[in-house]
Amino acid sequence: MKNKLSNAIFTVCCFLSVSTALAVEPISPIQPVKNINLAQVELGKKLFFDPRLSLSGHISCNSCHNLSLGGVDNMQFSIGHNWQKGGINTPTVLNSSMNLAQFWNGRAADLKEQAEAPIVNPIEMASNHVLAIKVLETIPGYVIEFRQVFGSAEITIDRVTSAIAEFEKILITPNSRFDQWLLGDPSAINDYELAGYLTFKTSGCVACHNGPGVGGQSFQRLGIKDVYETDHPAQGKADVTGKVSDINVFKVPLLRNIELTFPYFHDGEVETLEEAVDTMARVQRGVTFTRQENARVVAFLKTLTGEQPSFNIPTLPPSGPDTPLPEPFL
Amino acid sequence: MKNKLSNAIFTVCCFLSVSTALAVEPISPIQPVKNINLAQVELGKKLFFDPRLSLSGHISCNSCHNLSLGGVDNMQFSIGHNWQKGGINTPTVLNSSMNLAQFWNGRAADLKEQAEAPIVNPIEMASNHVLAIKVLETIPGYVIEFRQVFGSAEITIDRVTSAIAEFEKILITPNSRFDQWLLGDPSAINDYELAGYLTFKTSGCVACHNGPGVGGQSFQRLGIKDVYETDHPAQGKADVTGKVSDINVFKVPLLRNIELTFPYFHDGEVETLEEAVDTMARVQRGVTFTRQENARVVAFLKTLTGEQPSFNIPTLPPSGPDTPLPEPFL
To answer: How far is CA B163 from CA B22, B64, B130, B150, B155, in A?
Structure first.
C-alpha cells in the first residue's frame, strides 16, 4: 500500500514536473503522429522513392530529400534534371509537417501542394502532370494500389500528392535528447548543453525558433539588426506577394536535426553550424557571441537531433508494357 | 505411432521427390546465404547507399543498382557524373554473387573487385581512391564503425569494397514461384508456365542459363547461330584479353528477376521480354519461336522473380567538419 501510494505521488510529481517544463519552455517535444492513413503512407513511400516520376527516370523525391541523410542532400544547391543546379538550398523533409507553409518563401500552403511542384519544375524532375500520370497509370501495381487506397483506380495528381504528403507526415524525428529533457529526464542533456539552451533563450533566438519544430511557425525578415550579405537572387516572400515589405522575409527554418542539414540558409553559403549561429546572432539579434557562447549554443542545437526515419526500403511495382521509358539523354 | 510412421514416410517421399527434382533440373533453387559477416553487411549497406563516395555527392551504388527496382535503373544506359551516359547497360546487383565473374566482359573477378571500379570511373561516380578514403576518414561515424568491423580504424579501399561486397552477398531473391516448384510444390507454377519451362529446356536455353542464377556460369559468344546486330562498340571478353576469339563473347546474364531488369542485352536495345526471348532463340539457338512458344517462355521467365531485398533504409553517419564538401557543378 505504501509502495502504491509513493508510486502515485511520484507519478503525480513527475506529471507536474513535466507539465511545468512543457508549460514554461518555448520549445515543445515532437508529438506522436495521429490520424494517419497507413495505406496512403505506404503508397506515398513508394511514390517518394520512385524516379519514374521524373522525366529522366533518375530523380525521385529522395534524391534531394535523402532520408538516409537527414532529409537533405547536404549540397548548396541540389542536382536536378540534366545536372542543372537547383535554385535554392533544399530544406529538409523531416518534420516538415510542422511548417506553417512550405518552401523558403512559403508559396505552398501545405505538404500536398509542395509535392506537386518538384515533379514539374524544369530544373528538378522536369516532368509534367500528363506524363507523370501516364507513367503511373501504365504500372499495373500502382493501378491496383490506388484502387485499394482510394477506392477507385483513377490516378490523379491530387491523389499522388495526397499520398506523398501522408508519407511525409510520418517523417518526424522524436526522442531527441532535448525532447527527453523536456519530458522530464534531467540527465538527457549535460550542463554545457543546458547552458547553451539558456543562451539560446536569453539571446532571443526562441522568439522565432520555438514550438515542436523549433521554427517553422512564422515568416521573418532575414537581416533585422544587420544586413545578411548574399549574391543569391531570392527575395523571400516578396517573390510571392510582390510587396516591398516582404523583401527578404523568409519562413523561419526548423532547427530539428540541424547538425545534419548543412549547408545552411536559403543560399546554402554557410557550411558549419558555428558560422550559422554566429551569423544569425549578428544579423537577427544584433549580438556577437563569444567563442564560448557560440560553442555551447552549437552543443545545444546538436541535442535536437532525433530518431531518424526507420522503415523498409520500398519495392516499386515494375513498369508495364505501355509505360513510357524515360529518355534522359534527349 | 501410425501417425508418426506415416509422417516419416511422407517426409522421406518429399525428400526423395525434392531430391529427384533437384537432381534432374538444370536450374537449382537459390540457396540461403551462409558464412556472412553481419557487421560488414551493415557497414556495406551504408556505403552502398552513400552518395559521398562520388565526386558530386549525388551518385551512390544504389543510383544505378536501385534496390527498389530489381537492382537496376531500367535505363538503356545509366546516368553518371555530370549527366554523362553510361557505357553499357547496367546489370542487376541482385544475385550477382552467383556470377562466375563481374561486368559483362568479366573483367572483375568478384564483387569486391567490381565495387572498386564505379567509384573511380569518370563517367560514373568520378571520384578517386584518395578522395573517397579522405571523405570516409573524416566522417566520425564511419571511423567508429570501421574500427568495430575490422578491428582498427584504418579505412582503405580494400576494406570499403570488402564491406560493399559482403552486403551485396545478401542481395539474393529466394522463394520465386519457380523455386517453390523446384522444391516440391507442383501448384507453384501453372501448366502454361511449366510448358514454357519445357520449351526453354528443349530449345537448349538451359545449356547456358542454368544453375541457381539461371545464368552467370559461363562466357558465350553472342550470335552463335545468327548475327546479333548492334551499333554498340563493346566487344565483350575481347576488350579484356585482346583475343580475336573473344570478340562478342559475353558473360551469360542471370535470368533471375528478368521481368524487372529491362531493357535487355549489353546494349540495352531491347525493351520487352518478348523481343529478348525472340532474339536469343534466333541468334543463339537458330530457332524461331511461334507466338505461343514465345509467350509461354516469357510466362516461365516471370516465375523467376523472387523475394526482393527487404531491410531498413540505412541512416548514414553525418559528415564531420573536415569532410570535403562535394562540388558537383565545377
So the answer is: 33, 19, 18, 10, 11
